[in-house]
Write a structure and sequence with these properties.
Elements (H helix, E strand, L loop, with lengths): L12 H12 L11 E2 L8 E2 L2 H4 L32 H6 L14 E5 L4 E6 L4 E4 L3 H13 L5 E2 L10 H9 L1
Parallel strand pairs: 1-6
Antiparallel strand pairs: 2-5, 3-4, 4-5
Helix pairs in contact: 4-5
Length: 171
């Protein structure tokens, strides 16, 4: 099963707001709460060959072909689904305890989707996920859009509040 991602589906905060307005009319000028989701904290990892993982500049290529019949196992919460929560990437050695990429793990950040990618060339596993930088970007969006809050799906997937602190500090 493939989890929803912002790259694979056109749904985002702006389309959610437009959808709400089209169904229920405009939001009042001072709503008690507006919220933004901060729940795409992890994506499904994929096995990617090294020849497909890197672009001509030898940086991680974020949109690569992969073999979904060779789904790698996920973290301890999701061993059969192939899903890693943020803490699971730390536990599996993709990230250090502070959420930065571990030695031997390639990292890139897609500025369009505000999404980091890690790639382990020894296991051919690539994962897109949200980190402190992408959560801070979500917090900045909430602030600049005038939203009054956010919702976070499965906060237990965080590690030492790295993600939660990042979004809250941006507000």
């Amino acid at each position: 099963m493939r989890r929803w991602t912002t790259r694979a589906h056109p749904f985002n905060i702006k389309t959610a707001q437009r959808s709400r307005v089209s169904r229920h009319g405009p939001l009042p000028a001072s709503p008690p709460i507006r919220s933004s989701s901060a729940w795409r904290h992890m994506d499904t990892p994929n096995r990617v060959t090294p020849s497909n993982a890197y672009n001509a500049s030898q940086q991680i290529h974020p949109y690569v072909p992969f073999n979904n019949t060779q789904q790698p196992p996920g973290d301890k919460w999701n061993p059969t689904t192939g899903v890693f929560d943020f803490w699971g990437l730390i536990d599996a050695g993709f990230l250090n305890a502070d959420g930065t990429p571990a030695n031997g793990i390639d990292y890139d950040f897609d500025t369009c989707s505000q999404t980091p990618f890690v790639y382990n060339s020894k296991t051919d596993v690539m994962v897109s996920y949200d980190d402190a930088t992408s959560f801070a970007a979500k917090g900045n969006y909430i602030k600049t859009a005038g939203l009054l809050g956010f919702a976070m799906w499965e906060a237990g997937g965080d590690s030492n509040d790295i993600l939660l602190d990042a979004i809250r500090s941006a507000l």
